[in-house]
Amino acid sequence: MLSSKVTCNSHGQDSSYFLGWEEYEKNPYDEFKNPNGIIQMGLAENQLSFDLLESWLKNNPQPAAFKNHDNQSIFKELALFQDYHGLPAFKNALVKFMSEIRGNTVSFDANNLVLTAGATSANETLMFCLANPGDAFLIPTPYYPGFDRDLKWRTGAEIVPIHCSSYNGFRITKSALEEAYKEAEKQNLKVKGVLVTNPSNPLGTSLSLHELDLLVNFISMKNIHLISDEIYSGTVFSSPSYTSIMEVLENRNLMNTEIAKRVHIVYSLSKDLGLPGFRIGAIYSNDELVVSAATKMSSFGLISSQTQHLLSEILSDKKFTKSYLSENRRRLKERHEMLVKGLQKTGIRCLQSNAGLFCWVDMRHLLSSNTFEGEMELWKKIVYEVGLNISPGSSCHCSEPGWFRVCFANMSEETLNVAMQRVQSFADCMAKKNIQSRHQQLLQRNSRRSKSLPKWVFELSFHQREITADER
Ligand SMILES: Cc1ncc(COP(=O)(O)O)c(C=O)c1O
Q1: Average pLDDT of the chain to the nearest whole number
Q2: Cα–Cα distance, 250 to 263 (Å, whole number)
Q3: Which of 370-391 are b and which e, b meaning 16 or more Cβ less than 10 Å from the residue's Cβ?
Q4: In a mutational test of the pocket of ligand 1, which residue from 47, 233, 270, 410 has the highest number of ligand atoms less than 8 Å from its CB?
Q5: What residues of the chain score a pLDDT lower than 70?
Q6: Which of 182, 295, 415, 418 is 20 to 30 Å from the Cα of 73, by its Cα?
Q7: Residue 470 confidence (pLDDT)
Q8: Which residues are near ligand 1 (CB < 6 Å)?
């Protein structure tokens, strides 16, 4: 009875990434009401700096109460019809905030900005603008599981993975780019571009200058687009420093070229300000045709004027944004350290990272077999027995089994401590089991060996035993 679009399975809802959320919903951890429940560590939410936003709202009550600086009501103005161009005051404040995050090394023009209901909508809108159904975008693995839904489902576009691996810390290489391009050609897919997340979800690392240069060279040579999803740009809490693709274009004097026109940024306040519920996203493009097309499309997913007004006031308060950004980074760094050290104590290693709301955790040594079946088996154990919902690498299309994304900023410090205690008991239990099974294997091997010993060894040892008995 329903359309093929809604009944096809390219929505991706059946991935373990979303299944884990469902399991959490059925049995959510609560320190008092449900202390044995599942702790949600599969959600990249930033809850570390709400107090800063709340105290701003307390000190500046007018915008949330539909009032201007003269305390007069602006309710009617905000409630009436808005066009899809957005409020100029908000767009100006947002581009300045984007520059501030990048240390003011680049400036953004509000005329090149298109407002969207979150980065989800921004990514899909860009797909609608740049790709026909059946065209492909290349994406380095591991990647954000939501891309399967956001980029493919309604647009009919395809994703071809650029396989990155642990040997070089999952860095993008020229050969991996070329291989992905060839693979798309083999599948008769027209490649329209590359999409990267910088800093990366799920790796928590920012792209190096070398990788950024490779990407610009690649899209230039192949005459394709580059989308840089920079939704985590304000979460960089430690070195190496972060470079936006716009800075690379500027530094290479490519700003007013055809190449720059094919580079588009996706941004959102869901992570940096921790406001995913407000649905504030944007596309920044150097191509006016893309800006114009995306603006028209944005009428399917606008940000309410009320939200735009509130955020234009918050982001225009430069004293606030400066202190928010540095305090938020400090808190993220602290949390990141807590998780890394907590896991280290149990013998679990994380990929070295400098950004994001999660760690990319290496649990290969805990797999029963070096396969994705082994990974799912371990994941189920962690969800149901340990009580932690984490995201298996396979849901991020990682090509090596045994990696997991573990989020650290969507819970209190106390809850993270409980999670670490659970991991510790799990690791102890696994170690005990390993010793037992190794012991058993040894016993089996010995008994097998004695059964298959050649006759002369048996006779010799028998003889030796006799001698020993005689001696006694
Ligand atoms: C890389 C990436 N892009 C886009 C999104 C979607 O963000 P939004 O809540 O702004 O739609 C996410 C959310 O986790 C993400 O990690």
Answers
A1: 92
A2: 12
A3: eebebbeebbeebbeebbbbbb
A4: 270
A5: 449-472
A6: 295
A7: 40
A8: 44, 118-120, 144, 146, 197, 201, 229, 231, 268, 270, 276, 281
